[in-house]
Each structure stands twice: as structure tokens, then as C-alpha cells.
Amino acid sequence: MIERPYLTERYQNILKATIQHYIATAEPVGSKTLVEEYNFSLSSATIRNALGRLEKEGLLYQPHTSAGRIPSDWGYRIYVDRLIVPDEKIGRKIEQLLNQQLNWEKWSYEALWQRATQILANLSGYIALITMPQTSPNQLRHLQLVRVSSSQVMLIIVTDSYQTQSVLMNTSDLGLEESQETLEGIEEELQILTNFLNSKLRGRSLAELTTLNWQEIDREFTRYANFLKTLLKELSHRFHYSPLIPIMIHGVSEVLRQPEFSQLQQVQTLLHLLEEEQDRLLPIIFEFPESETFSRRVSIKIGSENPLESMRSCTLISAVYRQGDNPAGSVGIIGPTRMLYENIIPLVESTADYLSEALS
């Protein structure tokens, strides 16, 4: 994990003002602008030194030697995690619009989700994506641990729809290599662990795997707890979406007017992703937040944090909506990293909450 820099209140305020001004204008920000437009009661030289310090920390950079500064992806990350308060009014506004404009009694699911996506795109000014709900989450039918070599074991999972998934692991991860047991003993222990997994997990939905409390497992299986938690989280990530789920998309024409998308090649790669490679996009928008410090329900990927090259100039903000306790789909917004984060975070959260309540 990258160590977050310590910033005094003065540096935080200057960073916040710089990012907010750049978001509003798309122009590099200099010390003179901050002195004239923000009430810092500081000299231009003091602010210039502060901007230099923020640049050394990697939070700002100069696109040209003589230009002002603009935020880096890391600067936006600090801004989002530390310096903003989401505007809850806009969250209530989209809930009101969704209530007013969606006809749950007469419209099909597809029509409802199309309209919800359109409302989200119009209100945000960016690209809105909402996946159609998965109304029948897969449940676990059988699990089996199989020894495939002297150093590797495979976990095989079968669902109620007879989908299969497997993960290869080292026997050392399970603590078997150090035990000096015979091969027969290892086989016996794998069967005992297989029986335990089936007794605990059979009939559960795949989406539940990441929420199980492994601290409460039987004492005799305590040594497997951390490994099983990591393993089953990976399996849940593989299973909790289907590559065939349709994604409703609106707002492309609006966001492409932003100066960040002035290069034709950049536009083409993003459009190709949205139109032709939704199977690559889906697992990214269908993710749970990984923030260790904040309890936000949204996942935020800024610029280079995105795993796909075509999204490295974008920010993706997404949230999972649920049917009961099970994840059913995802709400997402894609825009430039120069995004109105204070507005988009509550828009995504509120839309996901609305769909969860409607489905439940």
C-alpha cells in the first residue's frame, strides 16, 4: 500500500482549492489565481512554495514548464478520500426523479433500467451504466478438494445451474506440506476439509461467500480460516456476474464534449470498450469498494487505478445494488478524472439504493 502523505490544514486547503478550480475550468492553476480567487490570506510566494511541495509529493504536476499545476491521479485520490463532503441534496434529487419518472406497474425491467440510466446520465453529465438485474443468483451445489500433484491441490465448485469453477493452490497454503503426513493422510485431510466446506456452504448463494464470518468456524479448522476467506472471495468475484448480463449505457455524446476526449484515438478506444468489450468492462463495474478508511458504498477507480488501458484517462464510480441480501447488479458512472466527485458519489449511491429498495 502506498503511504499517504501527511498534509497540514494549509496544504490540504491549497490542494483542495487547486483541484476544485481545475475541475471547474480545465485550466492549469497557478499561485496568482489562488491568491485572487480564494481567501487564503497568504502571499503568492507562500502559495507558490506550497504548490511546489504538493508537486514533490506527487499530488500535482505541471503539464508544461511555464504552466500552472494540475492534479495527478494520486492528488485526486487524496481529494476524494480526505477533502470532500458528498452533496446529499443531489442524491435526494435523483431519488425524487426516479420515483416520479419510473412506472413500475406498467413498464418492463428493460424499459425501467433504460430510463433510470438515462436519468442518471442527464443529471451527472457523464456516461451512466446500469446492469440488468440478476434475479436468480447461483447457489453452491458441491465443493471438492482434489490433490493434483505432490505440491498442488485444486478446489472445484459446482453450482445449482451446473456451472463449474476451479482454483489451483499450493499444499503449503493449506499447511499440509509442513505436516510430514503420508500421502494417504493428506488425502484424508482433504476429504475432511471438503466435507466441512460442503456442510457450511452448500445452498448458499455465491455472493454470500465474501460476507461469511470465518472467525466462527469450528476450532479444528481455524488454521484454514485466512486462506479460505481469500480463496472464496476470489471465487465469489469470478461467479457473481455473468458475461451475458446486458449493460444499459447513456451519456456518451455529452461526456465526449469534455476537453479530455479531444483526441480521436482516445475516443475510439473508449467507444470500442463500451460497445464491443462489455465482457471486460462488467467485472470492473461489478466490484465492491476496497477502501479501508471509509465506509462508502461506492468503488472509485481514478485514472491509472483502472485495469483497462482505455480507461486510464477516466474515473469510474460504481456501486452494487441488491435483491434482498444478494448482489443483483451494478450502477456506474464513467467520466474524466476531472470529475465533480462531490456530486457523482451520492448520485451513484442513491441510484443503487433506490434500485435495491425497488427490487426488494
Automatic annotation (TrEMBL):
The record, for HAMAP family, names: HrcA
Question: Which residues does the UniProt record annotate as the domain Heat-inducible transcription repressor HrcA C-terminal?
Answer: 111-345
The answer to keyword Transcription applying to this record is: yes
The family classification in the record reads:
Belongs to the HrcA family.
Name recorded for this polypeptide? Heat-inducible transcription repressor HrcA
UniProt xrefs under Gene3D superfamilies: 3.30.450.40, Heat-inducible transcription repressor hrca homolog, domain 3, Winged helix-like DNA-binding domain superfamily/Winged helix DNA-binding domain
What functional role does this protein have? Negative regulator of class I heat shock genes (grpE-dnaK-dnaJ and groELS operons). Prevents heat-shock induction of these operons.
Q: Which UniProt keywords apply?
A: Repressor, Stress response, Transcription, Transcription regulation
Q: Looking at the Swiss-Prot or TrEMBL record, what is one Pfam family this protein matches? A: HrcA
Molecular functions (GO terms): DNA binding
Organism field: Hydrococcus rivularis NIES-593
- Could you tell me the Gene Ontology terms of the biological process aspect for this record? negative regulation of DNA-templated transcription
